[in-house]
Amino acid sequence: MTGISGWVGTYDEDTAPEEIVTRMANRLSSGDHDSHYLNNMKTSSTPVGAVALVSRYDFNDIVEEDDFRATVCGKVIWQNPVLKTLAAERGDGYALIEGYKRYNSNVLKVMQGAWSMALISPKRKIALIAVDRMGVYPMCFGLSKNNTFVFSSVTGGMRDFPGFEATVSPQTIYNYLYFFVVPAPTTIFDEISKLEAAQFAHFEAGKLSTGYHWEMPYTAEKNGNIDEWADRLTEQLDHAICRTMDGADADAIGAFLSGGLDSSTVSGLMMKHNGKGKTFTIGFDDPKYDESAFARIAAKHFGTDHNEYFVVPDDATDIQGKIAEIYDEPYGNTSAVPAYYCAKMAKEQGIDLLLAGDGGDELFAGNDRYISMQTIEKYGSIPKILRKGLMEPIFAVPGMESVPVLSKARNLSRRYAISMPDRLYSYGFFFEQKPEAIFKADVAGSIDPDLPLEIMRKKYYHYDGSQMVQRMMHLDLQLTLADNDLRKVNRMCELAGIDVGYPFLDSELVDFAASVPTNILLKGGELRHFFKYALKDFLPSEVINKTKHGFGLPFTSWVSQDKRMFEQVTDNLSDFRKRGYLKDNFIDEIITACGQPGTSSAGGFSWDVAMLEIWLKKHI
């Protein structure tokens, strides 16, 4: 991948700083697919501070001026006219230094686009690092034993700094298994932190602080004229797709196409403004997971040059090890498999820029829980005296759970008793499982089971608005989009050797989405109501009316039926057993569930644990 590495401070090793920062930057490459970027490496080093840049863009550079060294990886859209002019004339690094001198860390407030940045002043012992508003680019950081501030786009770069300790602990293992990814601000290592979307870290005078340079500007308005808002949305979408495709070869632009709202919209806009384009979809033999028929409908509707690939179990087994290798932290989302093969197919068809629809659900209220949580909240509108004095005593009577109407009301009561945002994860396996039921006794004692929920609570309450759907969307922009989906698509496209663009994450479109009144977004309790209304004359009716799906993977049925996949997964489960984290009976339960789907709710963990074991073998 591409990115930045460096430090400010001292270290205890008799090695030249240029050698150290180069070593750190080399960890940005994880294989032949991206090693060519290292040929473009740029460095600037002193004994008490250094920075290295590896970028796919020739215009990215490291600038040195008045002891400052600054660099940007990615594309910045400057909102300050003076800095915009300076960037155009001399580069983003010069604009960044000048902006820091004028505004300190507030310079980040005028930087739109997708990027990561680093600015250091070794003599002044100052460092500033940050990532873009949506978290497209990652950045890790931490303090070494000398109170040296160390940073890198990957955890491997951090670990290559002299004397930097990086420990995989029972707590970080627990965090990963809870989410099947490692959410910011944590990493798989206790000593390394990761920036959240729109976050920065500032090191000055030996002290480290963090903050946010941007927040979603959600409106407090609840109502509005849907036709006026619909016209504005279509206009914003047109501008967003054009900005995303700007500078790309018109003959080498394509789009992911699952057949859902967002990928179909992106594909249609590509054709509208590019005049041509290829679309790519993944299919499965299992009809519960396959929606290639909807992708074909959308492709025919817009006239794209459509391509399909049907993923089979051998594909997943073949790529599992490479997925673990490319990530600097364990990553358990099975949909990385179809994402990779879709990107690979596009690359083989001559595509350089692949457009993705990620972000639409989080911006325009498209996740099922937005509706289900509001339904649960309605239970709370029943007078408390009636709920507590009559309804809930009835629910507690043995046998009432078998009465359909009462059973549904009883479930609403149980969920309502769990406060937000914990309620969002109350359906998960770990929510009602204590660590000592799964982890060995000597391991469970060092785990704080509340920490994953605390990570989620901080993200949820970071936005202080009163409207619950906005809080949930804000949480999902961090936890679902930045920590999971973008990490999936970015890395799988890197592995396939193709660039990816996200029209829905265009800064102006994001600001617009935040301004849409919530009663328009979810009118009548319908997911994506506003978006569907605005695009009803653009998208095929079949796409408008279909149920939500996506690039899933029929893993649980495959692993029970395919001998090679079963053996690869269960062999890694057996190897993980030897590490002494999980109880033997729990590992046995997972292995049994691999061969007999539905026998245990723990069966879905087999891929996650296997991916963790493969990752540990390759990286630790």
Automatic annotation (TrEMBL):
Biological process, per Gene Ontology: asparagine biosynthetic process
InterPro entries from the UniProt entry: Asn_synth_AEB, Asn_synthase, ASN_synthetase/amidase, GATase_2_dom, Ntn_hydrolases_N, Rossmann-like_a/b/a_fold
Residues of the Asparagine synthetase domain: 233-617
Annotated SUPFAM superfamilies: Adenine nucleotide alpha hydrolases-like, N-terminal nucleophile aminohydrolases (Ntn hydrolases)
EC code: 6.3.5.4
Pfam families reported in the protein's UniProt record: Asn_synthase, GATase_7
EC category name: ligase
Domain Glutamine amidotransferase type-2 as annotated: residue spans: 89-154
Sorted UniProt keywords: ATP-binding, Ligase, Nucleotide-binding
Gene Ontology terms, MF aspect: asparagine synthase (glutamine-hydrolyzing) activity; ATP binding
Listed GO CC annotations: cytosol
Family listed: Belongs to the asparagine synthetase family.
Name of the protein in question: Asparagine synthetase [glutamine-hydrolyzing]
Species this protein is from: hydrothermal vent metagenome
